[in-house]
Design brief:
This protein is α+β, with helices and mostly antiparallel strands. It contains six helices and five strands, in the order ααββααααβββ.
Length: 141
């Protein structure tokens, strides 16, 4: 899977378009593991690619439940209701999610923040592998 993440680093026209979109966007696998992201997401998170490529979305976004259990993001009972997991799961079942209102609790600088956002998630395939494009509107407000 790591080699596929590296393939997404192609600097062609598609990369330029992907990075031109100001909304934070993430290419994820079925476990919400981040394989790539655009500059909108990089600006928001202020981290480098090696820091959160191949990490799960809740860990990167600092979800309050990402460290509830030793196994990490996606493994806690609270994760069953996670809007990101549900949206990605729906996309992988062929049901795109478009601007679904959501509320997430994040831990930013040691403070719990309740964040309202709109989640969109669309499935796609690349070299016979399934992925999803996860877009989070409202994170950059």
């Amino acid at each position: 899977m790591q080699t596929l993440a590296v393939q997404f680093l192609d600097q062609g026209l598609h990369r330029v378009i992907f990075n031109a979109v100001p909304i934070p966007m993430f290419v994820v696998d079925e476990d919400v593991c981040i394989l790539d992201y655009n500059t909108g997401a990089a600006r928001l998170l202020g981290q480098d690619k090696p820091n959160f490529v191949l990490h799960r979305g809740g860990e990167v976004l600092q979800c309050v439940h990402a460290s509830d259990v030793r196994e990490g993001c996606g493994r806690s009972p609270a994760c069953l209701n996670c809007v990101l997991r549900k949206s990605v799961g729906a996309a992988f079942k062929g049901k795109p999610v478009v601007r679904q209102p959501a509320r997430m609790q994040l831990l930013i600088n040691g403070k719990r923040i309740l964040l309202d956002l709109k989640v969109s998630c669309h499935p796609f395939s690349y070299e016979q592998h399934a992925f999803a494009l996860l877009m989070l509107e409202g994170l950059d407000d």
